[in-house]
Amino acid sequence: MTSKTILIGSPNSGKSLLFNRLTGLNQKVANFPGITVNIKSGKSIVDPEQVLMDFPGVYSLHAISGEEKISVEAFYAGLKDPEVSSVVCVVDTTRLEKGLIFALQVLNACAEHNKPVVIAANMIDVLNNHGMTMDLEGLAAALKVPVVAISAKSGLGLGDLQALMASHRDSPSAYASALGSNDTAKGNIIASDDSIVHRQAQQLAASFGPKGDLLINSQTRLDQFFLHSWFGGISFILIMFLLFQSIFTWAAPIMDGVESILQFAANVVVPLLPAGAVSDFVSDALFGGIGAFLVFVPQIFILTLVVGMLEDSGYLARAAVICHKPLRIFGLTGKSFIPMLSSVACAIPGIYAARTVDSPRKRWLTYLAIPLMPCSARLPVYSLLIAAFIPATGVFGGLVGWQGFAMVSIYLFGILCGLLVTALVSRSSAVLQTDLPFVLEMPPYRLPSWKPLLRNAWDRSKHFVTKAGKVIFMVTVVIWVLGYFPNQGADLGESWLGYMGKVIEPAFAPFGLDWKYGVAILTSFLAREVFVGTLGTLFGIEGGEENMISLVEHIQNSGLPIGAGFALLVFFSIALQCVSTLAVLRRETGSWRLPTQLFVSYSIFAYSAAWLTFVIVQSIAG
Q1: Which GO terms describe its cellular component (predicted)?
Q2: 303-314 burial by CB neighbour count: b if 16+ within 10 A, else e?
Q3: I want to staple 606 with a disulfide (CB 3.0 to 4.6 A). Which of 310, 342, 344, 575 is the partner?
């Protein structure tokens, strides 16, 4: 018989990493508050009859923020579910007192609903590595519940935890009756009054927790550097620069490999096909269009991997503190940094992460900034244009490449635009003036767990390809058909697409673009990354026998002025070309008003800025 087990814990307790270990599923795990926003479920890899439910991390069952309220309500609803056989409360042993405050509240709630509880004392490996111990048996006796020492990172103790969950599934009534009838549990140890709970947690941690302040001292020493008024700011700038520089330097060999594989496959497959429409479709649409997009996927993998390293290490919370003071100038808060950086991967998780911004006003302003963050969908476009117009040379012995510098610059430009928008709106709008103070927990520093990081980066890249690939394939087929007929690709300008493109060409002519780029821009409003696939298809049809050369070379040979290339970079850094982002914004705000306003205003802003960029660059270039 299938039964359910609830996993619950405070943020940074390692709960979601434990869920991944027990189920084999890949869920985003990050070392800062608020990353988990949905309930995840999955079958245990050792017991298919056991379904685990990963509930969002909260600090207290007495909810303060709107996000916590939703999570707590879901937890209480789960306790009423007859299929729930037990609850696993994950506690960080390196911060035992804080974890026990929450655990005592969970014990009280489970006693009221007759649900068995297991305390999973996580990160026991950290204590072992520092020669520290804790009295697990004494803590279990005091709480009257099992306490299991585990390490979600290394897998230590997971067998014992799984055995306990199985025993609760097989005979939950015996344990629940013991807990429900235990006066000590209901009266002395488990109390509902906050002040009593805090005092009890302090006493329990002092009696049974690890002795010494080695871990606290280590964290303090690191914080003295990373949060220093000078060194902290300098280290933040260097870390962010290395993040974007790595997008080119680390990904370049993989990109070259992908391009070589695609070229080899095209040279093998295309000659085997009969001459005509089928051969041209495979060559122009599949290898020319979709293949041109796939070349840039390794950069998305590297970006996700590096951001994950920063998350798991505990650095992002420090970065939020560093950014709080400057972000206040623009009407935001340090907590806005987390959803904004999440949006570098994708705007959708960034919008969800904005729930952690307690102030309704600053959350609303964060929504304004998120679409302007340089998301991974823009990355293929940026990479294509930078590779076409910026030389692959460097300075300081190649340590700083011009292409990497250009990538950093365009990313900073998008971020700056977002900040300027929020600054302008925050000073001119009287909407949502309610505000709350900035409070953020500092998680401990930890070495990242490489296996989940690599798996998350792989799955994120795979998801991006499968999600974008469907749209790109459909658009590519339509573009190829319109560009190939009625003259079988003999003259792209005389095709159906050529006639359509020349109708819209005047709209894009002011910043030096012909009709082919105009068509690619229009299709990119379905999804930004479609721009690369559309251009690949168009140049593939036009290139004839030379359609196997890279899209970068096609652009360089097309005579596109350098001002137009920079104008395209500016346009794509500002325009809101993502239907999914608009839909999620509508769901989060409950109205189409904000998404519509952002789409229209950012499109006008992008067009104007692109035209101005073209004029300035062309005047400089002569």
Answers
A1: plasma membrane
A2: bbbbbbbbbbbb
A3: 575
Q: Report the alpha-carbon distance of residue 404 to residue 249 in Å, rounded.
A: 8
Cα(610)–Cα(570) distance, integer angstroms: 6
Give the residue from 575, 194, 199, 225 showing the smallest Cα distance to 381. Answer: 575
Contacts of 596 (CB under 8 A, 6+ apart): none
Contact status, residue 480 vs residue 284, Cβ threshold 8 Å? yes
Is the model more confident about 309 or about 396? 309
In whole angstroms, give the CA distance from residue 23 to residue 12: 19
Judge contact between 602 and 574, C-beta under 8 A. Answer: yes
Evaluate whether 239 touches 232 at the Cβ level (below 8 Å).
no
539 with 489: CB under 8 angstroms?
no
Both structure tokens of 264? 């080899």
Bridge partners (DSSP) of residue 208 are none
- pLDDT for the residue numbered 434: 47
Q: How far apart are CA 523 and CA 519, in angstroms?
A: 6
Residue 128 included in any domain: yes
- Asked, for residue 438, whether it belongs to a domain, the answer is no
In a domain, 470, yes or no: no
Q: Do 51 and 127 meet the contact criterion of CB atoms below 8 Å apart? A: no
Residue 329: how many CB atoms within 10 A of its CB?
11
Distances in Å between the Cα of 425 and the Cα atoms of 6, 211, 366, 432 are 43, 51, 11, 12
Instruction: Say which residues have a Cβ less than 8 Å from residue 622's Cβ, sequence separation at least 6.
Output: none
Range of the structural domain that residue 39 is part of: 3-212
Contact 297, 540 (CB under 8 A): no
Between CA 270 and CA 264 the distance in angstroms is 10
- What is the total count of domains within the chain? 1
Please compute the mean of the pLDDT values over residues 23-33 and round it to a whole number: 53
Q: Do the domain assignments include residue 451? A: no
Non-local CB neighbours of 593 within 8 Å, separated by 6+ positions: none
For residue 21, give every residue at least 6 positions away whose Cβ sits within 8 Å of its Cβ, in sequence order, or none.
Answer: 152, 155, 158
Which residue, 388, 366, 417, is CA-closest to 517? Answer: 388
pLDDT digits (tens, 9 = 90+) for 320-368: 788 888 888 888 888 888 788 778 767 876 787 787 677 788 889 999 9
Domain CATH number, residue 44: 3.40.50.300
Dmax (CA) of the chain: 88
Q: Give the pLDDT confidence score for residue 597 in this predicted structure.
A: 93
Other CB atoms within a 10 A radius of the CB of residue 249 amount to 17
**The pairing of beta strand 394-395 with beta strand 400-401:** antiparallel
Q: Answer with the residue of higher pLDDT: 475 or 622.
A: 475
Segment (H or E) for 600: helix 593-621
Report helix angle 315-329 to 297-313, nearest 10. Answer: 100
The model's pLDDT over 189-220, given as tens digits with 9 standing for 90+, comes to 444 567 788 889 889 988 998 876 656 666 77
Distance CA 522, CA 534 (A): 10
Does the structure show a pLDDT above 90 at 306? no
Single-letter amino acid, residue 182: N
Helix axes 579-589, 593-621, angle to 10 degrees: 140
Q: How many whole angstroms separate alpha carbon 150 and alpha carbon 90?
A: 10
Which residue in the block uniquely carries the two structure tokens 């685990």?
A: 52
Angle at the Cα of 29 from the Cα atoms of 529 and 26, rounded to 5 degrees:
70
